[in-house]
Amino acid sequence: MKVSIITVVRNNVNSIERCYLSVVGQTYKNIEYIIIDGNSTDGTSEWLQDNIDSSIRYIREDDKGLYDAMNKGVKHSTGEIIGIVNSDDFISKDYIEKVVGQAVNIDYENSIFYTDYMLVDEHGESLLLKNATLNKNCFHKGTGLMHTALFIGKGVFHQVGLYDLSYEIAADSELILRAYQNGVPFVKIEGCNNFMTIGGVSGNRIHIARREYLKALQNNNIKFNKLKALFFNLQRWIAYDLLGIDNYLRIKSLLK
Questions:
Q1: pLDDT 10s digit of each residue in the chain, 256 long?
Q2: 169 vs 174: CA distance, rounded Å
Q3: Quick one: which of 164, 213, 159, 209 has its CA closest to 185?
Q4: What is the pTM for the complete model shown?
Q5: Contact 224, 140 (CB under 8 A)
Q6: 3-state SS string for the chain
Q7: What are phi and psi of 76, to 5 degrees?
Q8: C-alpha of 33 from chain center
Q9: Dist. CA 55–CA 171, nearest whole Å
Q10: What is the domain partition of the chain in residue ranges?
């Protein structure tokens, strides 16, 4: 099975090396690695040009934002399944090997695979392990999945389309909802380690992300309890704005 990994980056010179090394250091070797650089100006482009292997597909050009860059990566991908590793994030060295080992006997080109993920701070310190579960019965909270811990079969993009650029922050969640509504199978992969740094685009602009997510539910004709959604939004506001995301996650981890 050929796996395509896409990293989208713009001005993240402090984290790109950790991300890059975690991908090229995988024990599974049938990997196509595509890096989409939105013309970084902070030294990221120079680091990539000086350090990446010649086998890496490196595209440096302007884009219309995060999801436009992701769509470019998908279009360039030739793997049967496609994963996103953001420039802030990293994966354990056997991550892809474990995914492939459990996905190989499934209709992987037409399925979405998801894993648990560890939320970490900017220094890589673990804050909270998130047990991924597709929230079929409580979509008002979110999908329960994180796009950096997904592998999407190439056929899924042919079936449901690419990331919708009308969403600035929540296009990844909208794609999950669209796939769910179109009957795409979701399969959990156990025992994998994916590390997501908090404080990315959605972390800093959580309120816009929530509004976009609720819009995605409506646009995909998914019914949800609006009162519960309002209450959940209030909880998030208290947790993130008053405590701070890092402190909130540390407290939540201690209470587990």
A1: 999 999 999 999 999 999 999 999 999 999 999 999 999 999 999 999 999 999 999 999 999 999 999 999 999 999 999 999 999 999 999 999 999 999 999 999 999 999 999 988 888 888 888 889 897 877 888 898 988 899 999 999 999 999 999 999 999 999 999 999 999 999 999 988 789 888 654 445 777 888 899 999 999 999 887 788 777 777 766 666 666 666 666 666 666 6
A2: 10
A3: 159
A4: 0.90
A5: yes
A6: CCEEEEEEECCCCCCHHHHHHHHHCCCCCCEEEEEEECCCCCCHHHHHHHHCCCCCEEEECCCCCHHHHHHHHHHHCCCCEEEECCCCCEECCCHHHHHHHHHCCCCHHHCEEECCEEEECCCCCEEEEECCCCCCCCCCCCCCCCHHHEEEEHHHHHHHCCCCCCCCCCHHHHHHHHHHHCCCCEEECCCCCEEEECCCHHHHCHHHHHHHHHHHHHHCCCCCCHHHHHHHHHHHHHHHHHHCHHHHHHHHHHHC
A7: -85, -15
A8: 16
A9: 29
A10: 3-255
Name residue 157's amino acid: F
Tokens at 6, concatenated:
């896409």
> Which residues are within 8 A (CB) of 192 and not within 5 positions of it... i.e. 6 or more apart?
92, 95, 98, 99, 115, 116, 149
**Amino acid present at 203:** G
CATH of domain 3-255: 3.90.550.10
Distance of CA 2 to the CA centre of its chain: 19
C-alpha Rg value of the chain to the nearest Å: 18
Per the CB < 8 A criterion, the answer to whether 120 and 198 are in contact is: yes
